[in-house]
Amino acid sequence: MLSVLFQKIEVGRRSFGGTLILCLGLGGCAAQAGNVSSIDDVMVPHVGEYHFKMVNAEQGSSIVDASGVLGYRFEKMCDGWVTEMQQIMILQGAEGTAINSAYSMTQWEDFAGSQYRFRMRDYLDGTKVDEIVGSAVRNDDGVTVTYEIPVEVVEELPADTMFPTQHSTMLLKRAQAGEKFANDLVFDGSGETPTNRIAAVISGAKDAATSADDPDKIASTQFHRMSLAFYPIGEAENGPSTEMAVDFGANGVAHSMRFDYGEFEVLGTLDKVSLLPQPECGS
To answer: Which residues in 192-260 belong to E strands, given as ranges?
Structure first.
């Protein structure tokens, strides 16, 4: 039972990785993915730290406790935006079994929203169990994904497919415009279901209530709660693989996030956040 539940958690955790990154990313979508203005007037480059804890569990759940930490970095380079994430989660089974999992992902997107590169590594009890490396290019009639690791393969995606940070910016634009719902196709390159139809319910603006160490006062802006449901492409009839809610600041800083794994829920809270400097790129 624990191994089956862990597989379910893996799907959610990888979706979470893409989701967190899509909630902190890049603008400038190509025309097929929607016309989004520059990210410079929406997002702030920053580095943040989060901690996670279990907040609810069903009676008879195979997991009785969960905790973890996450480090996140969103940085502007001269040729695009780089996002880095490292997460460690410890899951305690009802019979005393502990699962120690670690996950890392690095992504780069150019300013035009036309190129995307990604690398994902997954560890279980200190042993690497998975690695995915690849890139994607937006063409006139679609998106071409080229995987390098674990196998060399090329995949074609529909023209309206967004990259994670493009989607992030689109969600913020919709929130600012007072829109309440969204339904988009997003590719992040992680896990067995890298392309998802993401249904979003967007709340009105709420006042920040975070107690994070925030010397630059970038987590004090109002936020919108984004309730997201992930439907793997081609499997929508099976229902969402993951559901989560992100309190997403107007400047792109995630204040908190809640993940629903079915048998239990985990809450992630911002501990520390600070601005990153702008690059010196010359003329």
So the answer is: 195-202, 223-232, 242-249, 254-260
